[in-house]
Amino acid sequence: MQSGRRSVSPVALTQRVKDNILHMPDRLRLHQRISADSKGLCNAGTDWEVVQALRDWAYAHVCEQEEIEATLDQREDFAYAEADAPTIFTAFEQRLGGVWCGGIGQALHKLYGMYGYTSFVLDCGASQTGSTHISNLVRIEHRGRALWTVQDAYYGVTYVDMAGDPLDVLAMLWLLDARRHDQVIMRSGPRNARPLLALGDEASLRMSWRISPPYPVGQPEHVLADGRLMFCTRPSVDALIAHGRADNLFEVLRCNGYPEQLVYLYCLVFAVYPSDSLGSATLLGEMQQCRTNNA
């Protein structure tokens, strides 16, 4: 574990706010919005608690979208890649559009950056077929060690060891390549719902795995002025399994000799974004080396 593994001292949340947020009105408004809505952030005393609280808040406040039109991160009239965290989360709040896991990963990356955390967007799976899943890595200090932890705002989860402590991504990959997935524990946050935008096509609604509970049990909470429906969706472990089937992720795992559990997608990492950021190539190489060493 070479890159970013030196011991560092945790920076108090109040200092992070002072250094990165107080002097920028848009950031301050978003921070105040999160603080008013997140007991986890207000009570956070460590990096580990802060990054989980931010992921949990992002999980509930990103807007997901069914396959009805270009997602917000793909639209030509909204420069998603260049937008900062306040702009993106304001757009979600105004229901300008929604995203899937890729856009959610970008949003969380920008939110972590707003608080001064180094993070990356992690792409895993089969890039040639598009059967992939995107989450985030964020660097924290925990008990005198620098760790890269997986934070997945699409499903609102992270991964811990048997003692409930954060798993460094390299330690997690070593366990998975040894087929010791029983020691990689998925931990969910306290939130359990977020908005989903969809059109009113009956057949599409019935087929959607993103609407949870499934339509027609799951009914829209609002009809927007343009006719789009806003559901309150609850991505869960069952939805994660449905995602695996819908996007052929289980087939990808089978073809690569892994058990049909989606946590093994992290053994198939193929990109760390932004790819031109300092340390991204080294981190990707270390993650891929774990698989090579255990092949």
Task: Record the SSE blueprint.
Blueprint: H1 13-20, H2 25-37, H3 39-42, H4 47-61, E1 64-65, H5 85-93, H6 101-114, E2 119-126, E3 131-142, E4 145-152, E5 157-160, H7 169-177, E6 185-188, E7 194-198, H8 202-207, E8 222-223, E9 229-233, H9 237-246, H10 249-255, E10 269-273, H11 280-294
Parallel strand pairs: 1-7
Antiparallel strand pairs: 2-3, 2-10, 3-4, 4-5, 5-6, 7-9, 8-9
What key phrases describe this protein's structure?
295 residues, alpha+beta, C8orf32 fold, 6-stranded antiparallel beta sheet, 4-stranded mixed beta sheet, 37% helix, 19% strand, globular, disordered N terminus
Shape: globular
Major pleated sheet: 6 strands, antiparallel
Write down the Rg: 19 Å
Distance between the termini: 19 Å
Strand content: 15-25%
Structure description:
The strands form two sheets. The protein has a six-stranded antiparallel beta sheet with strand order 6-5-4-3-2-10, with helices on both faces. It has a four-stranded mixed beta sheet with strand order 1-7-9-8. Helix 2 (25-37) packs across helix 5 and helix 7 (169-177) packs parallel to helix 11. It is built from eleven helices and ten strands. The longest helix is centred in the first third of the chain and has 15 residues, at 47-61. Mean pLDDT is 88; it is low at 1-8. The protein is 37% helix and 19% strand. The chain has helices at 13-20, 25-37, 39-42, 47-61, 85-93, 101-114, 169-177, 202-207, 237-246, 249-255, 280-294, and strands spanning 64-65, 119-126, 131-142, 145-152, 157-160, 185-188, 194-198, 222-223, 229-233, 269-273. It has one domain (13-192, 262-294): C8orf32 fold. The two termini are 19 Å apart. The chain has 295 residues and is α+β, with helices and mostly antiparallel strands.
